[in-house]
Specification:
single chain; mainly alpha; about 100 residues; rod-shaped
Length: about 100
Amino acid sequence: ISKAKERSESQLMSLKREKDRVEEKLAKASVTRANSKGETKTLNLLKQTNNDITARWQKEKNAREETAAELGKTQEALRRVQKDLSSLKHKQESPSRQNE
């Protein structure tokens, strides 16, 4: 009977150690899961911020491209006007030279 009692106590101690080990693993898993949820929230926030910044950058890029295109058109119009002005000046000077 005493050997059976010792065996039972030994098995009970072994089961208690196993229970403690399982509870410790569960506690660690719970902490890991909580950290994972926090990291997921952070990751989602970073993704959204990245998307917002990318959209803003694209909008600004489009605005710069439109401004550059408008500048090119304006510069071309200026060149035409300068060319016309030069031509008119040349025409005005020609008759006055002939009169001299």
